[in-house]
Design a protein that fits this description.
heterodimer, A: mainly beta, Immunoglobulin-like, seven-stranded mixed beta sheet, globular, B: Immunoglobulin-like, six-stranded mixed beta sheet, five-stranded antiparallel beta sheet
Chain lengths: 118, 112
């Protein structure tokens, strides 16, 4: 597609519920990233995929958070037993390639999925 | 070691003026320093980026100044326009790693 697409744009859920957030990266981009942006803060790294595998998941806050990218394109961020502190905008980004190659750091972000946990 | 500190938190500039946003980093191994622009309801978009082998990079009205010894870099917006009103984030990362570390952001308002 022309840009990174994220769905849903807004999600309101109750504490303790399960949530899935979807990301469609730019076609052909092999690297995909999830970031979390709390109100008034900069994006915070969660996880990075190179192809189908999670190359770096050091930013996932705890085991309630999990992400998959089974076919190397679309990715889903899954949050179990949601807590009020999980409320934030979840941003997805993609880049043409990862690692140390030129252009690897040029991330294109989607508009985000705003999650509100009541 | 991973922190990027950004200032000011907010900035008001008159149309035609110069907007200056500053960032400082701690990890001397960082070697890629981008600035992102974010409008309300949108994701951040890459504005301009610099690597530490140069001290300045200019693209149109936007200039990054980089001071390696002080571990600081700044964004200058010349002839600021109301359309530049947005939140600006500095970031830093290591080549070979894809984890961008972002500053907390600066909300810029350019008044006509």
């Amino acid at each position: 597609g022309a840009g990174v697409s994220q769905t849903p744009s807004n999600k309101v859920t109750e504490k303790g519920k399960y949530v899935e957030l979807r990301c469609d990266p730019i076609s052909g981009h092999t690297a995909l990233y999830w970031y979390r942006q709390s109100l008034g803060q900069g994006p915070e790294f969660l996880i990075y995929f190179q192809g189908t595998g999670a190359a770096d998941d050091s930013g996932l806050p705890n085991d309630r958070f999990f992400a998959v990218r089974p076919e190397g394109s679309v990715s889903t961020l899954k949050i179990q037993r949601t807590e009020r502190g999980d409320s934030a905008v979840y941003l997805c980004a993609s880049s043409p390639r990862g690692g140390s190659l030129a252009g690897a750091n040029v991330l294109t972000f989607g508009a985000g999925s705003r999650l509100t946990v009541l | 070691q991973q922190q990027v500190k950004q200032s000011p938190q907010s900035l008001i500039v008159q149309k035609g003026g110069i907007s200056i946003i500053n960032c400082a980093y701690e990890n001397t191994a960082f070697d890629y320093f981008p600035w992102y622009q974010q409008f309300p309801g949108k994701g951040p978009a890459l504005l301009i980026a610099i690597r530490p082998d140069v001290s300045e990079k200019k693209e149109g009205r936007f200039t990054i100044s980089f001071n390696k010894s002080a571990k600081q870099f700044s964004l200058h917006i010349m002839d600021s326009q109301p359309g530049d009103s947005a939140t600006y984030f500095c970031a830093a990362s290591l080549s070979g790693y894809n984890k961008l570390i972002f500053g907390a952001g600066t909300r810029l308002a350019v008044h006509p």
